[in-house]
Amino acid sequence: MNFNDFNFNPDLYEGLMAMGYKSATPIQEQAIPVILDNHDLIACAQTGTGKTASYLLPVMDKIMKAKDRHNNTLILAPTRELAQQIDLQVEALAYFTNISSLAVYGGGDGIAYEQQKRSMRDGVDVIIATPGRLMAHLSSGVLKLEHLQHLILDEADRMLDMGFYDDIIRIISYLPKKRQTLLFSATMAPKIRTMAGKILHEPQQITISIAKPAEGINQQAYLIHDQQKQALLTDIFKDGTYKSSIIFVSTKDKVKALYKAFRGLGIKAEAFHSDLGQKEREDILLAFKNRRLPILIGTDVLSRGIDVEGIDLVINYDVPGDPADYVHRIGRTARASTKGTAITLVNGRDKRKFDNIEKLIEKEVPRMTLPEHISAMEITHVEEKRPHQNNGKKKVWHKKKPKPSNPN
């Protein structure tokens, strides 16, 4: 379907043509008419399917026709990175229009907070916000949303996973009952449907089937012990084959530990985590996007909050617990019909998780052979011995003799 078929405002259409939009993706083709017809909507679609434009374009077209545009549209996003990314897309699409937008998130200084307050008090067309920071502005009484026309929840499943349910419900209590509500989620878990039943009115439903990883991704897996992982990464990066890489790990502490190990090995990388200041995070992302930083280490926040072209390698240092997160992670590479590599390191504990991933993607990922010098590494196993009926005494830690390193 061609974008010309939607009869958007000419200035908005000029903006999307300038951005290189051609034919609509499946989620855009299905969602845009529903939104233009003023229906509430539940849409299940992953990152990389064009879902952001699927709600921005029709809402922006409606804003240009609206009489009252004071804080017309509110978009809730789980992370500051996604809020910033949506804000940039609004700015790009609105280049030839007079639509205004504001990204509202925490982590800045008092000056940023006051600037946000002033902009929202004066009124903007589109507010893109994380729930916690928006709730702070609403509680202060400065932000008024009685004229709001559109509420959009982007990555609703991630917001609930991050514990924002109560904030979302409280935010909605400040909104007019008569509004259009759009909920976008990568998964449609029962908790999403429960929330949708509370906040949407007779919604239309669209489900874009779970996207399989792009054909251009060369997926690989290593069966490996944790103590071998850093040695393998050193091998992967030593010859400079990969120019732009993301390494996903399971926790913030592991992000910091791997960054410290890389620094000791002289491998240029940066850690991306919530303990960094807002300016630090923005500088790191800018350096990565501009190819001045070759390796970024982070948690799953990056899998949905970053959209950078030209990433040629994604490494799952830890196997994600949710199979859908695997698709999100490796989807950072091989975008726009390019090619890329995705390597997953699978220890003994994570084999079942990886089996579930292969069931989801309906494909067996090739197992790679470890380099001989890594396979020959001596592995020390430390395991916790369950205490017997020992009257509450401390657990006993038992060190076993080294075993051969093959985890199969």
From TrEMBL:
A Gene Ontology molecular function term of the record: helicase activity
Pfam family, one: Helicase_C
Family (UniProt): Belongs to the DEAD box helicase family.
Record keywords: ATP-binding, Helicase, Hydrolase, Nucleotide-binding
Region ranges (Disordered): 382-408
Motif annotated as Q motif, chain positions: 1-29
Protein's UniProt name: RNA helicase
Regions of compositional bias (Basic residues) in chain numbering: 391-408
Domain DEAD-box RNA helicase Q positions: 1-29
Organism (species): Pedobacter mendelii
Matching InterPro entries: DEAD/DEAH_box_helicase_dom, DEAD/DEAH_RhlB, DEAD_box_RNA_helicase, Helicase_ATP-bd, Helicase_C-like, P-loop_NTPase, RNA-helicase_DEAD-box_CS, RNA_helicase_DEAD_Q_motif
Domain Helicase ATP-binding: 32-206
SMART domains, A to Z: DEXDc, HELICc
Sequence ranges assigned to domain Helicase C-terminal in this UniProt record: 228-378
